[in-house]
Specification:
Helix content is 44%, strand content 16%. It contains 21 helices and 16 strands. The protein is globular, with a radius of gyration of 21 Å.
Length: 500
């Protein structure tokens, strides 16, 4: 399997090279030259397997060049009883005969980013060994909350890596911030950026394409890579849990193998739902991928109209990991739906950079409509959905999952589609306690998010996840707040490549 750029086409990198590079030299996203297909027999064979065995089966199709021993080691190092609190890794929680929730937050940081970021460091170091590459890899991360902590935890003290995370100041929850600023590790750095997530994401992309910075790194025996979902090594592991959820639905008797299923996915950067698209193209019987957005509904507008326009007010919501107006992974989708027309994609991305908008052609939009459906929910609807889900099922959701639950109902009401459905749950409810408590504890005592952890735990009879307990007792190690213009100099300072 070779990997090609969405802006240049032509296969030219191996899986290991694609993981190491993170981003294509022309700024495009590295995408597999073909999508492997599984037969119904393959799907049936996955049903009795463990999550780790399913991961090996799926990832082997994309990570050609990796030996079976290397792949098994990477998977075992990522998904085990030490890193995940549930032995099933990504358990499926059945609400009723036609609705289940896929819990992707049993990893160390209590968010779905652990599903990919626990394995990415192992994939990256294995790739470097395969390429006989002795350079130090510098991982730059822009985060809207969850990616940062998951990447820090995954890369902490990994040999020949340095990781620097940028997060929007005042754009993450108190719990998310404390998880990052208390991060330990000899190779880690964390910086708050004045602005929103799009400011941090654009700043990181500019640093990646800065030839002067790249030259300084090369002279020091270093190279940039990415832990954001622009890196194929981040996206490929996410495909696995779509197959795993389907197999678990069959195993628990809610589907017969081959029956269709819908997935409702809360997403801002489009990576999570794009993994579902790859699963569908591989042969998973997915009827519809429902894109659940919050008030920053740029993806909903695109899916409905084919116009991507980030020229709109930015909203800070109670589902902050979705507070995004530049959805990077959408580029991979339009590349594939345009028939891998790299010239058209490069043109659209050029328009986006220059004007903040682009419009795909009717043929691409028709394909989008055949695969996706989208709507959005505001904060008031999100809080109400947390309350309604608790009252109806005794199931506590975080704000992002509540958005997906709300959109699930909107989709069913509008379309009449009764296909069995999986709602993808991306974070523990304890990561967003203020909003969850507002929904289910109307008479709660006023207090900080950390104080509400205990109150919510008592009310729900759910334990506080280990990764979130006693955050306030941990020393704050990263306090610096910078402007967007300072991001590049701070990278050089972090790496010891400047005297200032």
């Amino acid at each position: 399997m070779k990997y090609e750029s969405t802006r240049e086409g032509r296969p030219f990198l191996s899986a290991a090279q694609a993981i190491l590079a993170g981003l294509a030299p022309d700024g495009g996203l590295l995408t597999p030259e073909s999508i492997p297909r599984l037969s119904e027999g393959d799907l049936e064979a996955l049903i009795p397997l463990t999550y780790q065995e399913r991961a090996e089966f799926i990832l082997a199709r994309y990570l050609t060049g990796f030996s079976r021993e290397d792949l098994v080691r990477c998977i075992g190092s990522a998904y085990n009883e030490t890193t995940f609190s549930d032995s099933r890794v990504a358990p499926l929680h059945r609400l009723d005969h036609s609705l289940s929730i896929l819990e992707l937050w049993h990893g160390p940081t209590c968010a779905f980013k652990d599903m990919a970021l626990q394995i990415l460091p192992h994939l990256l170091t294995t790739s470097a060994a395969m390429e006989q590459d002795l350079r130090t890899y510098v991982i730059l991360v822009a985060t809207s909350g969850d990616t940062g902590k998951a990447a820090l935890e995954g890369f902490r003290d990994v040999d020949r890596t340095r990781i620097l995370v940028f997060y929007p100041d005042a754009g993450v929850s108190q719990v998310q911030k404390l998880q990052m600023v208390t991060q330990e590790g000899s190779n880690v750095g964390v910086l708050a950026v004045r602005g929103n997530f799009d400011d941090t994401q654009s700043g990181v992309k500019e640093i990646f394409s800065d030839q002067q910075v790249e030259r300084l790194l090369a002279e020091a025996g270093m190279r940039f890579s990415s832990a954001n979902s622009i890196n194929w090594g981040r996206l490929a592991p996410q495909i696995v849990y779509y197959f795993s959820a389907y197999c678990d639905m069959v195993r628990q008797g809610d589907l017969a193998c081959g029956d269709p299923v819908n997935f409702v996915v809360p997403t801002g950067n489009f990576g999570n739902i794009l993994a579902g698209y790859f699963a569908r193209e591989m042969g998973l019987p997915v009827n519809r991928l429902v894109c659940a957005a919050n008030a920053n509904n740029v993806l909903t507008d695109f899916i409905r109209t084919g116009v991507y326009d980030r020229n709109r007010p930015f909203s800070r919501t109670i589902s902050p990991s979705m507070d995004i107006l530049i959805s990077s992974n959408l580029e991979r989708l339009i590349y594939l739906l345009s028939g891998r027309d790299a010239a058209r994609v490069a043109g659209w991305m050029g328009e986006l950079a220059e004007t903040g908008r682009y419009q795909v052609t009717e043929d691409v939009l028709d394909k989008v409509h055949s695969l996706f459906w989208s709507d959005f929910s505001d904060d008031e609807e999100t809080v109400r959905r947390i309350r309604d889900t608790w009252n109806a099922y005794g199931y506590l959701t975080d704000t992002h999952t509540a958005v997906a639950m709300d959109i699930c109902e909107k989709y069913r009401n509008e379309t009449g589609d009764t296909t069995p459905t999986v709602v993808v749950s991306t974070a523990s409810p304890f990561k967003f306690t203020a909003s969850v408590a507002e929904a289910v504890l109307p008479d709660r005592d006023a207090g900080s998010e950390l104080e509400l952890l205990e109150e919510l735990s008592r009310y729900s009879s759910l334990p506080i996840p280990a990764g979130l307990s006693r955050l306030d007792a941990r020393p704050v190690l990263h306090r610096q707040v910078i402007g967007r213009e300072d991001m590049s100099p701070e990278v050089l300072k972090f790496l010891g490549l400047t005297e200032n």
